[in-house]
């Protein structure tokens, strides 16, 4: 299976990919050319990527092997940092959802159900309830499958405008409408007197800045914050409108679907990713959480216009990891830039990855533009769907569990450990992996076990003030 | 009751833990991962123990209060033994991880030592154990109510908080001692750790007779703390050296920063 760094657009569920700009990526014009390019640059560990490009690839086999070991070591060494880079946003999203559930009663009040789950769970018998929830879950999953296939078909036939329109409409809905409702409910909970003009101003600003950050350019932290907020909003909608048994069933089925769709050769998500790779495009950055931004190296000695553009980009993306060197690598991954922007960049500067002209141009740069291959710039990507479903699990646990905080915390730890294991597998297999199955499985097991087994035990112990 | 009580209790119960985490764990990604994984292992042990207790309760006569009380004590003992078993399992896992990290690192040494992992794993067990014991009580303390209105002790909250603090610290110390004992194969140390854990848990059965439970538990905590300190390589001499070392280092820094060749050369 080819390695990939592309990421999945599917709104409902995402996928975990790793963003290694060199040896482990291959999302450029030409896979084999890239690999050659990568191997050559990997030959000198600390040399700037630029400088190895044009030079004769005279280094020998033993260096290649050593480099592969160093790759692995760097992978695993910085693996811990990547895990934390994902722990923090996942934790923040869950904290926002749990805090809202605990304080704003709107999201735990039953106000009907979505049209995707038409069968009610207020039935007389347990069997009827089970049947209804199975039917609800089946309908929801079929909707998701149909939408995924539709997306793949649209992508295959290059209907980019339709896809972008769809993404823009859904983020408009989230950023304006759902956040307006959320704000309204928070004000109601805390009994804050508010007028429509102020609210309009706040929502307008929030929404417009959000659209700009997510679909265009913006400071990295702000973009990450917006992605976390819209994931939390979406999770809250699911928690409110999905009845209990349906929600658990949907979580279980969707992690199975994620596994199948990403790993099976004919899975829609895998086909999407492969198509993107063939065309050497990145997919829909608006639906992926990325932990770092990549910068453009000050490429264009030859092209002053591109130089201007490059420096303009670097001012936008100042939110980079702390030990950035001055000129960054022209890493192939786009870390959140939209398709149009990337095409624009490509038109102005030329595809950065592997043309001989670009390499020569960069080589001609003065020697103080040493870009050390800073592995800490590598980021990890996680689909927003994963954020949403993790938060749905923890939110439902905090809303409905009798063990209350114990259950919530147990699910939280379970999800984090699942994420950690998934990232470990990612470091081992170096290809796109589904992020839902392990975490959701652990989360569900811990939810039901803690709620039914641990909670009575701890309750009895606390009653007698026994400690274990 | 109210926010003041909540914050006070939370501070007592988790103050040391929070300080330790913020100062020693939060900055290093590997330690954070060890912390979360330790919590996971403790949770699994608790799950199994609860399963055992649950089955035993369901197989027994629910009406018999004495039997249920006995089963609860049995469940607590099983839980303690399972916690220590999972601590051992975690030790095995961390040892393997340590070797793996050492293999793939540049200079042959892993970025985190087994001793650090012992400390962080002990802390993680302590934190998750403390949280699971006391969080529902803490949340209840925000709301309205009168403690012990039905004749129970009015000191329930504050003693719970102090017990939790002791438990967190105890787990941290036990972690250090346990891992060291496993490394050096001193099985009597292992047995002693398990025995003190059982003793501590047993002392809590004497609640609400707090003089008999709290005071010995804190004494045990102190002893364990000293033992862990000595195990980790500390000594009175070390403390003095540490306190006086600071000034020496500073002066050396001053010399080099003045960009002069050190006079010793």
TrEMBL record, chain A:
Residues 31-47 have a biased composition (Basic and acidic residues). Homodimer. It comes from Psilopogon haemacephalus. Residues 12-30, 50-60, 312-327 have a biased composition (Polar residues). It holds the Pfam family Presenilin. Residues 1-71, 306-378 are annotated as: Disordered. Belongs to the peptidase A22A family. One of its GO terms (molecular function) is aspartic endopeptidase activity, intramembrane cleaving. GO terms for biological process: amyloid-beta formation; apoptotic process; calcium ion homeostasis; cell adhesion; intracellular signal transduction; membrane protein ectodomain proteolysis; Notch signaling pathway; protein processing. Its EC number is 3.4.23.-. InterPro entries: Pept_A22A_PS1, Peptidase_A22A, Preselin/SPP, Presenilin_C. It is found in: Cell membrane; Cell projection, Axon; Cytoplasmic granule; Endoplasmic reticulum membrane. One of its GO terms (cellular component) is endoplasmic reticulum membrane. The keyword Lyase does not apply. It is a multi-pass membrane protein. This is Presenilin.
Automatic annotation (TrEMBL), chain B:
Coiled coil: none annotated. It is a multi-pass membrane protein. One of its GO terms (biological process) is Notch signaling pathway. Its main location: membrane. It is found in: Membrane. PANTHER family: GAMMA-SECRETASE SUBUNIT APH-1 (PTHR12889). The chain crosses the membrane at residues 6-25, 32-55, 67-86, 118-139, 155-179, 186-206, 212-230. Potential subunit of the gamma-secretase complex, an endoprotease complex that catalyzes the intramembrane cleavage of integral proteins such as Notch receptors. Keywords: Membrane, Notch signaling pathway, Transmembrane, Transmembrane helix. Belongs to the APH-1 family. GO terms for cellular component: gamma-secretase complex. It comes from Psilopogon haemacephalus (coppersmith barbet). Component of the gamma-secretase complex. This is Gamma-secretase subunit APH-1. InterPro entries: Aph-1. The keyword Transmembrane applies. The keyword Lipid biosynthesis does not apply.
